[in-house]
């Protein structure tokens, strides 16, 4: 937590000056419209549509009806559609939009607001005031008072359908929509953060995530509270290089708030979010949630967990963005659990979110299974992913139901015996340099079956090297140690997959 109030004030004023882009300008012609409860969801600010259109240079005609106002304009996506598009503001402040041409089918308010131009604080009634004055640099600057949210109104089902004719636009088609929250869960040191980086790049660039889920291009924000800024910068560059991106391709599309050493909890983050215009970001990810939990938070408490997710849900509505939170899985065997039961904390964590996505170890070493419980889309098929530093890559041909199980006591006893056998083989080869299977069995006292099994494992993971030799007129395998085991010096660049080298990329999975 931040101890020095002056430091906190300085930080929040700096955050108010954060350079954020106008709402995303890349649009998908088939994206459904998104509806809002008012012009600036979450506070009592109503979009002044005539002022906004006028400042953006859009000519319009207005028709006032008993329960709404209809603004007729030229389609912002096709100037040939003169006077054929409408923006409707209902009495509640909800906004919808459409063009009558078939070629514009599926385009609604989400696309119109982007194409017409940014909505500035003065375009709302009352105008939106930043939490901190970005121009003053004055230590006495105080936050603006919170405006009470209006009570929701009881309406008919017919009015509900009329106000909400379409589902919200997807951020990740088939997985996540604007305003929704996604949990990203796995055990520690599996590679959750690298997983998140790839997701952010896919949304920022408008790519297909793992070649399966189309992302709609839009600016993203990563709120990182685990890594030092230098480490995070290095990681993002590493991923960009692996994706063969140039700096100009992505560096203005991905935004970062680095909080390591100056942590803000989920409630204090609300002050930061009040400095961001609605629609600025498509996706905001907090990595990791445990470091943003309020003081005294009980992760197993249902009420406390619900309150955290209620806050996140409110931020998503206010900012018109999807939210992601990185959550650690509980210790122990996760293979036998239902997807919604994976995750460290109260059950409300899964119930309060729209997407509960988990990564669980596959029986194949270095692989995980992506699975998810999803609220507003069809269920997805689990996907097997392979860790190929610095990226997770989809793999075909492996059974996604083959989840790695925690070792039994018998497995643990066998692993201990195997480790002793490996050490015997290594000691023998360090003494003799090289040897055939028959020689090694004699030196170690191991039986044929045991030695054959252990040697196969060591050849596969790179600890043993083999070559074919002729002995007593018969061809056979001769074994020797890999250089790093024979000399005791680990390689500088190319480590081994068995994980003994700290600088090998396969070990960089935090």
Short structural description:
This protein is an alpha+beta fold. It has helices spanning 5-16, 49-55, 109-116, 157-163, 192-205, 229-242, 247-250, 269-273, 302-319, 348-351, 409-432, 437-444, 448-460, 483-487; strands at residues 46-47, 61-64, 68-73, 85-90, 95-99, 124-125, 170-172, 176-177, 181-186, 208-209, 213-214, 220-224, 254-258, 283-287, 322-328, 355-361, 367-374, 383-388, 391-394, 434-436, 464-471, 474-481. The longest helix has 24 residues, at 409-432.
Overview of this protein structure:
By secondary structure, the protein is an alpha+beta fold. 28% of the residues lie in helices and 21% in strands. It contains 14 helices and 22 strands. The chain has helices at 5-16, 49-55, 109-116, 157-163, 192-205, 229-242, 247-250, 269-273, 302-319, 348-351, 409-432, 437-444, 448-460, 483-487, and strands at 46-47, 61-64, 68-73, 85-90, 95-99, 124-125, 170-172, 176-177, 181-186, 208-209, 213-214, 220-224, 254-258, 283-287, 322-328, 355-361, 367-374, 383-388, 391-394, 434-436, 464-471, 474-481. The strands form six sheets. A nine-stranded mixed β-sheet has the order 13-12-14-15-9-16-17-18-19, with helices on both faces. Strands 2-3-4-5 form a four-stranded antiparallel β-sheet. Helix 11 (409-432) packs across helix 13. Residues 1-43, 130-147 and 490-510 have low confidence and may be disordered.
């Amino acid at each position: 937590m931040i101890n020095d109030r002056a430091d906190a004030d300085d930080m929040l004023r700096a955050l108010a000056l954060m350079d954020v882009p106008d709402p995303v300008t890349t649009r998908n012609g088939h994206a459904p419209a998104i509806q809002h409860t008012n012009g600036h969801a979450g506070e009592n600010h109503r979009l002044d549509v005539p002022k906004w259109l006028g400042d953006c240079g859009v000519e319009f005609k207005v028709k006032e009806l008993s329960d709404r106002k209809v603004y007729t304009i030229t389609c912002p996506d096709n100037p040939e559609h003169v006077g054929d598009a409408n923006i409707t503001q209902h009495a509640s402040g909800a906004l919808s939009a459409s063009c009558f041409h078939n070629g514009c089918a599926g385009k609604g308010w989400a696309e119109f607001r982007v194409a017409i131009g940014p909505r500035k604080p003065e375009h709302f009634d009352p105008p939106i005031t930043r939490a901190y004055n970005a121009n003053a640099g004055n230590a006495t600057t105080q936050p603006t008072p919170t405006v009470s949210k209006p009570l929701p109104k009881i309406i008919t089902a017919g009015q509900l359908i009329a106000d909400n004719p379409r589902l919200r636009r997807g951020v990740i088609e088939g997985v996540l929509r604007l305003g929704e929250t996604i949990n990203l869960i796995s055990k520690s040191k599996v590679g959750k953060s690298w997983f998140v980086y790839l997701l952010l790049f896919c949304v920022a660039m408008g790519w297909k995530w793992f070649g399966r889920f189309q992302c709609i291009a839009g600016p993203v924000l990563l709120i990182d509270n685990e890594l030092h800024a230098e480490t995070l910068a290095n990681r993002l560059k590493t991923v960009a290089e692996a994706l063969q991106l140039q700096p100009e391709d992505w560096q203005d599309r991905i935004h970062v708030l680095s909080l390591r050493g100056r942590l803000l909890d989920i409630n204090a983050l609300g002050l930061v979010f009040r400095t961001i215009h609605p629609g600025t970001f498509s996706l905001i990810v907090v990595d990791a949630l445990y470091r943003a939990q309020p003081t005294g938070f009980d992760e197993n408490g249902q009420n406390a967990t619900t309150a955290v997710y209620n806050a996140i849900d409110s931020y998503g509505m206010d900012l018109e963005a999807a939210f992601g939170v990185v959550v650690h899985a509980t210790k122990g065997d996760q293979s036998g659990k239902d997807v919604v039961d994976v995750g460290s904390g109260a059950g409300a964590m899964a119930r309060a979110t729209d997407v509960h996505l988990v990564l669980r170890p596959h029986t194949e070493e270095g692989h995980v299974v992506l699975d998810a419980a999803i609220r507003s889309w069809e269920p997805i098929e689990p996907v097997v992913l392979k860790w190929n530093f610095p990226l997770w890559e989809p793999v075909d041909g492996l059974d996604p139901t083959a989840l790695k199980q925690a070792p039994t006591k018998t497995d643990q006893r066998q692993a201990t015996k195997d480790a002793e056998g490996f050490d015997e083989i290594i000691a023998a080869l360090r003494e003799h340099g090289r040897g055939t299977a028959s020689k090694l069995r004699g030196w170690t006292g191991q039986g044929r079956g045991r030695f054959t099994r252990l040697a196969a494992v060591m050849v596969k993971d790179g600890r043993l090297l083999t070559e074919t030799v002729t002995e007593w007129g018969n061809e056979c395998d001769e074994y020797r140690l890999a250089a790093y085991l024979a000399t005791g010096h680990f390689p500088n660049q190319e480590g081994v997959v068995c994980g003994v080298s700290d600088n090998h990329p396969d070990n960089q999975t935090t």
